[in-house]
Specification:
Layout: E1 3-12, E2 20-30, E3 35-39, H1 46-54, E4 61-66, E5 69-70, E6 78-81, H2 93-104, H3 109-122, H4 138-152, E7 156-160, H5 168-185, E8 188-193, H6 196-202, E9 205-210, E10 215-221, H7 233-249
Parallel strand pairs: 3-8, 3-9, 6-7, 7-8
Antiparallel strand pairs: 1-2, 1-4, 4-5, 9-10
Length: about 250
Amino acid sequence: MSIEVKNINKSFKSKKTDNLSVLEGINLHIDDGEFVCLLGPSGCGKTTLLRLIAGLDQPSSGEIIANGDKVDKPSGDRAVIFQQYSLFPWLTVLQNVTFGLEMTKKGSKEENIAAAERYLTSVGLIDFKDSYPHELSGGMKQRVAIIRSLLNHSPILLMDEPFSALDMQNRHKLQEQLIGVWKRFENTIVFVTHDVDEAVYLADKIVIMGKNPGRIENVVEVDMERPRKRDSQEFIALQDSIVENLDMGD
């Protein structure tokens, strides 16, 4: 599903002013099946823009079109994965992961369990499949929440720094998993991050944002074959270029 962000402005009321501008003049086109990273410093409106695309908030002016329809409320076609994990405390890890699949009746119960167990194995959680959320660490809970969202295969995935709380090893594993799911199911993904390495590893297109107010400074097309090698000259050169761009944006 494609996404069109047209002339979006977003303001909030604050204690100091009735019109605090958070986003200004945002125009962005995201192709069907494209992987886009929103990259920028804290306070540049990345999460606000993601929430507008999700339909969780409404713009002060402008409009967002997803697959030809105006976005004015949340939709099952647009799954949102936040930084904070949200699991059902009364369900086991395996039940949490397969919950969405069972609700939408995608695949048989046996197929869903097998798929969930493959994902849990890949991130070192298979031994905890019968555990409950209160028995897990924060990082483990987040891995479960991410796997649950990946298995639901929504056409649009909106992800707000979902890997930021994880250690590097698990973050890299889940980045690889995400690329695998995206290639297989051709989701359209909008991924918020402040990590340049993560953006270069994942994205087809990196949208660099600046702040005061939040705006798009630059759009970088990432023409690099996958799987990407973090130690390659091409990867490092693009990282360095973006870091310089971000510095100028601040």
